[in-house]
Specification:
By secondary structure, this protein is of the alpha+beta class. It has eleven helices and 26 strands. An eight-stranded mixed β-sheet has the order 2-3-4-1-5-8-7-6. The chain has a seven-stranded mixed β-sheet with strand order 9-10-13-14-15-18-19. It starts with a strand and ends with a strand. The structure holds zinc ion (2 copies). One zinc ion binds near residues 252, 254, 255 and 356.
């Protein structure tokens, strides 16, 4: 079994006295506390490289931490080891007769799975095993009502892009905490199109990378489509036939590659009944690529659509269908746009490559891929302020774990409250 030390939990009697030592005397930085209501515990996390210390404070007399303090006094409460496969780890321990507290893993914070080993088996130390949330389980189709509309977050599998390129000028020591890179420096990303259903029909916004990549491209991008858009649509009770409109935020392969597919050697529109709605100037960009964007615009993704006569173009920001409105952001590429989905006074925004993952909610965390990063910054600063103040539900197209959430501000620090 391979395990990484995730954190060390320390039960504290008086948090102010504990902070006087850990924060003031040692000079360590402490994150904003996290409340685990079900356990009546407040956790103060102190990052320490790949691991962390966790100061645990009881918030009610019946909290397990309060019980521990009464029995044993303050001090080391537990250590947490991160494993790849918690079920396999528990099986392994069982066959060796190790006494467990939890026979089966149970849900922990941040959709992780956790299980405790009895301290008597671990020489007096309470050991927690933890398996981080699996992207595969985060790739379920998720449905919600949105005023008169219905939203279904779907996915087209996972891929990886260079971590440095995903975070631009942000140094690796900062981004690697949010998005751990693999041995080729790539970070895991999702592709999450959004389906909007209304009385006017059913629209898919972006449609993933699709199935046309050759072996070399699949290797470069670590494309993992074990579960892909067809599965995701089926999970939601939908089919490609049932899509009436495919709307592109822009024509990069990881957003609109899924618009075409190969059938009997020929490239065909992926959604047989759909109109494909594309900004005219983006069509021009994509069909006249330059050295800097050529790798992102693959003609097989969109030229067959024109040949099939299924493309509708438009010029400016507009309402595409009642409740669905596009707004050009520029920055990432000149015609990049986000999509506002509005009904009954509620606003959701599909932000595409403006805020590709939840790590990108900081203004300056802007992709190195962006052709005009200062334009991204200007739009993003204004937009995120508005999103916080007006409570927009934000869809993160490339986040491997979280499909959508609200951006909240807590003492100047931004966090995402996950909704889907
Ligand atoms: Zn893009
Ligand atoms: Zn992208």
């Amino acid at each position: 079994m391979k395990a990484i030390l995730d954190h060390v939990g320390i039960a504290v009697e008086n948090i102010d006295v504990a902070l006087a030592f850990y924060r003031d005397a040692l000079g360590l930085e402490i994150e904003a506390p996290e409340e685990v209501r079900s356990q009546s515990v407040r956790a103060h996390v102190i990052p320490a490289g790949q691991s962390a210390l966790e100061l645990l404070e009881a918030t009610a007399p019946d909290s397990p931490i309060a019980g521990y303090l009464r029995k044993r006094g303050p001090g080391l409460h537990h250590i947490t080891l991160r494993v790849d496969d918690i079920c396999a780890a528990l099986d392994h321990l069982r066959t060796r007769g190790v006494r467990l507290i939890d026979d089966q893993p149970r849900p922990g914070a941040q959709s992780a799975l956790v299980a405790f080993i009895h301290p008597s088996a671990a020489h007096g130390v309470l050991v927690e095993l933890k398996q981080s949330a699996r992207p595969s389980s985060a790739l379920a189709s998720k449905r919600m009502a949105w005023g008169d509309l219905e939203l279904v977050s779907v996915h087209d599998g996972l891929f990886r892009l260079d971590g440095g390129a995903m975070f631009g000028v942000v140094p690796r020591p900062l981004w690697e905490v949010e998005a751990p890179p693999d041995e080729r420096n790539r970070i895991l990303l999702g592709m999450r199109p959004l389906v909007v259903s209304a009385d006017w029909g059913r629209m898919i916004i972006d449609c993933g990378a699709g199935d046309k990549m050759d072996a070399k491209q699949r290797d470069i991008y670590a494309l993992d489509r074990t579960r892909h858009l067809d599965h995701a649509l089926a999970d939601a009770g939908l089919t490609a036939d049932g899509i009436d409109i495919a709307l592109a935020t822009h024509l990069h392969f990881d957003h609109f590659g899924g618009a075409t597919s190969r059938a009997d050697g020929a490239l065909k529109p992926r959604f047989p009944r759909a109109r494909y709605v594309i900004r005219a100037a983006e069509w021009e960009e994509a069909t006249h690529p330059h050295e800097r964007n050529r790798a992102s615009y693959l003609p097989d993704d969109f030229v067959p659509l024109r040949d099939a006569g299924v493309v509708d173009v438009y010029d400016d920001d507009r309402t595409i269908r009642p409740g669905v409105r596009v707004v050009r952001t520029g920055g990432h590429c000149p015609q990049h746009q986000v999509v506002f989905v509005e009904s009954a006074g509620k606003t959701a925004v599909f932000t595409a490559d403006l805020i590709p993952t939840t790590a990108h909610i900081r203004d300056a965390w802007i992709m190195g891929y962006d052709l005009f990063p200062m334009d991204t910054l200007a739009f993003k600063k204004r937009f995120i302020r508005e999103a916080i103040d007006r409570e927009y539900l934000i869809f993160f197209e490339h986040d491997p774990l979280i499909a959508a959430g609200y951006i909240r501000e807590d003492k100047g620090r931004r966090v995402v409250e996950q909704v889907l």
